[in-house]
């Protein structure tokens, strides 16, 4: 692959399509329901430009109430990005880098630190998978505590896929909805496979599910 600096300025023209079904009873601190979403991004090809790829992301989330204040949350997400003309002609910056929080978050690991390593550098994966389990305790309608398990990895190709060789993180945290500020939170994650085990703090603005 070529980095941005090696290739020089590139013209990118893309379009994204997505579908989403959300049956949660509320957008924050939900007690039940599910989310199913799929997006596809097409760059180049008939849209012209210098960057040609197709990127897919899928996510499924289920929330189950347990007793009065406990909520069990299961999330699975995965994705693939490939070149339109050559499978490996995907720009470095369009690949999947896992770690920290966000859509490609893997708690217990630093931002963009998880993926295929080449010569000591994370070159980003062309496919990834993340599984998350959270057990939440609702303190009120605007705040909850949580304990979590994150499992995932990113791979260079289907040939490199090793579904049982993954990075694992566990930890605790909280989410709070505050007037004028929105949703904020804090997680303390322990990366089980992060250099033999390491605690990593994460600050959250907003929430995914």
TrEMBL record:
<dbReference type="InterPro" id="IPR000184">
    <property type="entry name" value="Bac_surfAg_D15"/>
</dbReference>
<keyword id="KW-0732">Signal</keyword>
<keyword id="KW-0812">Transmembrane</keyword>
<dbReference type="InterPro" id="IPR039910">
    <property type="entry name" value="D15-like"/>
</dbReference>
<dbReference type="Pfam" id="PF01103">
    <property type="entry name" value="Omp85"/>
</dbReference>
<dbReference type="GO" id="GO:0019867">
    <property type="term" value="C:outer membrane"/>
</dbReference>
<feature type="domain" description="Bacterial surface antigen (D15)">
    <location>
        <begin position="5"/>
        <end position="206"/>
    </location>
</feature>
<protein>
    <recommendedName>
        <fullName>Bacterial surface antigen (D15) domain-containing protein</fullName>
    </recommendedName>
</protein>
<keyword id="KW-0472">Membrane</keyword>
<keyword id="KW-0998">Cell outer membrane</keyword>
């Amino acid at each position: 692959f070529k980095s941005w600096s090696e290739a020089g300025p590139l013209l990118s023209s893309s379009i994204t399509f997505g579908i989403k079904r959300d049956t949660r009873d509320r957008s924050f601190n939900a007690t039940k329901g599910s989310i199913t979403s799929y997006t596809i991004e097409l760059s180049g090809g008939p849209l012209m430009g210098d960057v040609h790829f197709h990127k897919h992301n899928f996510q499924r989330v289920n929330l189950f109430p347990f007793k009065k204040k406990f909520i069990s949350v299961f999330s699975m997400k995965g994705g693939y990005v490939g070149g339109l003309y050559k499978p490996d002609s995907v720009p470095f910056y369009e690949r999947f880098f896992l770690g920290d929080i966000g859509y490609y978050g893997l708690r217990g690991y630093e931002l963009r630190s998880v993926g295929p390593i080449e010569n000591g550098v994370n070159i980003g994966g062309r496919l990834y998978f993340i599984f998350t389990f959270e057990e939440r305790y609702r303190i009120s309608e605007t705040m909850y505590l949580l304990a979590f398990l994150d499992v995932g990895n990113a791979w260079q190709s289907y040939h490199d896929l090793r579904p049982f060789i993954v990075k694992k993180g566990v930890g605790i945290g909280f989410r709070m909805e505050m007037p004028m500020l929105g949703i904020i939170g804090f997680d303390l994650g322990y990366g089980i496979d992060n250099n033999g085990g390491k605690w990593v703090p994460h600050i959250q603005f907003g929430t995914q599910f």
